[in-house]
Structures are given as structure tokens and as C-alpha cells.
Specification:
By secondary structure, this protein is an alpha/beta fold. 30% of the residues lie in helices and 13% in strands. It is built from 5 helices and 5 strands. The protein is elongated. One of its GO terms (molecular function) is DNA binding.
Length: 158
């Protein structure tokens, strides 16, 4: 009896509604926009295919002679509106700064007042939401408030 009633209700619901075909392709992005600075020939916003990696970005932006890729994971997947600073080997002040977008756990531990738990939280945040788009976004990570951010902001870069 329940089955018959359920089928009857489903038929009433289906016959009373209007159905529209949804084109799922309209929700898929055909490209992502990534901003790149630092040791590249072409700085600024670059359009890439979805799921592009840092390696794909660098092939489009071109590397400058002083680019330092030693701290980068070239297989990192980029997201729309990511911002990435490619480190350089020059005497630029950034050489002493740690990239919150590309540093691994050991690199993040070099930032003063960042312990292992907070460093892992930074990595987890990047994995879930993509690269940081502004230094201030670091305060979205649990364990980093305004005071800690103010203390470390000169020691970090994107």
C-alpha cells in the first residue's frame, strides 16, 4: 500500500511541474586567471586552462634569468584568481622572505612565531581554498590573528 501511495505521489509531482534542461557547461569555467609577479618575463594576469599547474603558468609567463625555482612545487594546481610571486636569486628583499603560497612545512616553520600546528594549518588552507591572494588572507587561517600577522608580514610574501 505504501509503495502504491509513493508511486502515486511521485506521478502527481512529476506531472504538475515544468522541467527545464540545464546546460551544465555554463557552470564550468573555460579558463582561470592567475596573477604572477617576481622572476618571470611576463608579469600580471595570465589566462590558463582549469587545473593548470605552476609549471603551465611558467611556460606561459617565461622565466627571468634570476628566477629561483628551488622552493616551488611545479605540480601545484592553480585556482582562479590565485596570486603567485616567483622568487629570484637576486639581492632583492624577497630573497629573505618566505612565500606563504609555495613554502613547504619546513619553510613555513622558518617564519617567526609559526609552529608546526600553524604551518600545517596554512598548508591545509592552501589545499582547500587555493593559493593566498593577499598577505592579509593569512589571517583566515586558525591561529593567525592581527597581532601575529603584524609581526610576520615583513617576513613573508605571496
Amino acid at each position: 500500500m505504501r509503495l502504491l501511495l509513493t508511486v502515486f505521489l511521485c506521478l502527481i509531482i512529476l506531472s504538475s511541474g515544468q522541467f527545464h534542461i540545464i546546460d551544465i557547461n555554463q557552470y564550468n569555467k573555460s579558463s582561470i586567471q592567475v596573477t604572477v609577479h617576481g622572476g618571470v618575463l611576463r608579469q600580471g594576469v595570465i589566462s590558463l586552462d582549469p587545473y593548470a599547474t605552476i609549471e603551465d603558468l611558467l611556460s606561459k609567463a617565461g622565466l627571468s634569468e634570476d628566477a629561483d625555482l628551488s622552493s616551488l612545487n611545479l605540480e601545484t594546481v592553480l585556482h582562479d584568481k590565485d596570486v603567485l610571486t616567483i622568487p629570484t636569486k637576486s639581492n632583492d628583499i624577497r630573497i629573505n622572505q618566505i612565500s606563504i603560497n609555495t613554502a613547504d612545512l619546513n619553510g613555513l616553520l622558518q617564519i617567526p612565531k609559526i609552529g608546526e600546528k600553524t604551518a600545517q594549518a596554512i598548508i591545509d588552507y592552501r589545499n582547500q581554498y587555493g593559493l593566498f591572494q593577499a598577505l592579509e588572507d593569512l589571517m583566515k587561517v586558525k591561529g593567525i590573528g592581527q597581532a601575529k600577522f603584524d609581526f610576520i608580514k615583513d617576513k613573508i610574501c605571496l
